[in-house]
């Protein structure tokens, strides 16, 4: 069994790296991903048999083959479920609905592999920190607020990735299992 998800990688924008560095050094009990692992999770697959990888890759390729490249703007910050009791600190994404369209196609495609449909509505974001405890969180939230109106940059989405996630004490390590280009 492997832990897997479907994602889009995003560029390492300078202001985004600055935000992540400030959060990492804030003293808060949070987990900040490494700069080279920043991505948009479109569908978390959970633990899947390795034998599914090829068929999931084919299914992802079919979805990608009828999608055109599109632009996404990385802008603003926030917290899930809210700033009073946050579990995830994020930067926002703005597009013309393409991300939600992809997610709506992934759910039924992945359900054929026994992967449950997502119950929560899709909110496009990039996780910049996971909250481990409320200790020292005020400083991290203050930093996050300083970036709430920042436009980090924009980029063209040109591929979908099936990724493997290996959890370690130092954080998750990601590996591409498949990369499927958009047209």
How would you describe the overall organization of this protein?
This protein has 183 residues and is an alpha+beta fold. It has a single domain (2-181), classed as Cyclic phosphodiesterase (Cyclic Phosphodiesterase, Chain: A). Helix content is 26%, strand content 40%. It is built from four helices and nine strands. It has helices spanning 14-24, 53-65, 98-111, 137-146, and strands at residues 2-9, 30-31, 39-48, 70-80, 88-94, 125-131, 151-157, 159-168, 171-181. It has a five-stranded antiparallel sheet with strand order 2-6-5-4-7, covered by helices on one side. A hairpin with a 2-residue loop joins strand 8 and strand 9 (171-181). The longest helix has 14 residues, at 98-111. The radius of gyration is 16 Å and the shape is globular. The model has no long low-confidence stretch (mean pLDDT 95).
List its salient traits.
Cyclic Phosphodiesterase, Chain: A, 183 residues, 40% strand, alpha+beta, 4-stranded antiparallel β-sheet
Short recap of the structure:
This protein has four helices and nine strands. With 183 residues, the protein is of the alpha+beta class.
Say which CATH homologous superfamily is assigned: Cyclic phosphodiesterase
Can you write the helix and strand succession as a string?
EHEEHEEHEHEEE
Major sheet summary line: 5 strands, antiparallel
Helix % is 25-40%
Number of helix segments?
4
Could you list the spans in which at least 5 consecutive residues all have pLDDT below 50? Answer: none
Instruction: Give the second-level CATH assignment, the architecture.
Output: Alpha-Beta Complex
Q: Give the count of structural domains.
A: 1
The name of the CATH topology is Cyclic Phosphodiesterase, Chain: A
Approximate strand percentage: 35-45%
Shape label:
globular
């Amino acid at each position: 069994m492997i832990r897997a998800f479907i994602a889009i990688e995003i560029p390492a924008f300078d202001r985004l790296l600055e935000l992540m560095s400030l959060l990492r050094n804030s003293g808060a009990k949070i987990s900040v991903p490494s700069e080279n692992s920043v991505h948009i999770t479109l569908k978390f697959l959970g633990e899947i048999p390795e034998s599914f990888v090829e068929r999931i890759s084919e299914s992802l390729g079919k979805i990608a083959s009828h999608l055109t490249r599109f632009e996404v703007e990385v802008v603003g910050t926030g917290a899930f479920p809210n700033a009073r009791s946050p579990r995830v600190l994020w930067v926002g994404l703005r597009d013309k609905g393409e991300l939600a369209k992809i997610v709506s196609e992934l759910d039924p495609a992945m359900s054929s592999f026994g992967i449950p449909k997502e119950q929560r509505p899709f909110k496009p974001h990039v996780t910049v920190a996971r909250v481990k405890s409320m200790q020292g969180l005020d400083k991290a939230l203050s930093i996050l607020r300083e970036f709430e109106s920042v436009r980090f940059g924009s980029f063209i989405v040109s591929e979908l990735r099936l990724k493997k996630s290996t959890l370690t004490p130092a954080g998750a390590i990601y590996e591409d299992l498949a990369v499927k280009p958009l047209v």
